[in-house]
């Protein structure tokens, strides 16, 4: 059998902690990281910048195929810096507005197809931790370790509420719950690559777990699947 590059997929809905968990697992292993959600957020921002409507599938497909995006790693302790057309958009794409916009463009089949090969190109002999919503089902279905994180909408909204509060941004908690449920529905019901765990994914409910506990749980699985890769 041909030995493929090692991949761990970490999927889940918004607010389950998959982003920071994936960063920590990748750092612990010394592997590369794919934040697939960032690609869709960057595309949504590019659409806004170029005046492309979020329901114009044809125009968005063209934009996705020629998306000028770079992920620049400056410090292994920090997530990559994200550049759109040479401009730093690392923090700009992390707003709730961009998250909702990304969910809308991500529901379009032509857009997902356009970004498919770009995501698979992140695969590396060094190892890859891929964070997203369809990493284990569509992008890397052959990944030997697939994780799917879950959490209630209320817990996820509370986490986001506290994050925004720490940044001095005041939002309504019930509004956040509603937005998350709307995004979940859109992600789960889209015709292409809907949000769902792969049949062989390990599901972890994060409602009552800290980030550290989730990472420790995943690292136990890493030791079973990649014993020689664990450090």
Mean pLDDT: 91
Q: Per DSSP, what share of the residues sits in E-state strands of 2 or more residues?
A: 15-25%
As laid out across the biggest beta sheet, the strand order is: 2-6-1-7-8
Number of domains: 1
Please tell me the CATH architecture by its name: 3-Layer(aba) Sandwich
Largest sheet: 5 strands, parallel
Distance between the termini: 26 Å
Describe the global form: globular
The topology string of helices and strands comes to EHEHHEEEHHEHEHHEH
| Total beta strands | 8
The CATH superfamily is identified as P-loop containing nucleotide triphosphate hydrolases
In DSSP terms (H or I, runs of 4 or more residues), the helix count works out at 9
Amount of helix: 40-55%
Rg is: 17 Å
- Uncertain regions: pLDDT < 50 for 5+ in a row? none
CATH class: Alpha Beta
- Overall structural class, as computed from helix and strand content, comes to alpha/beta
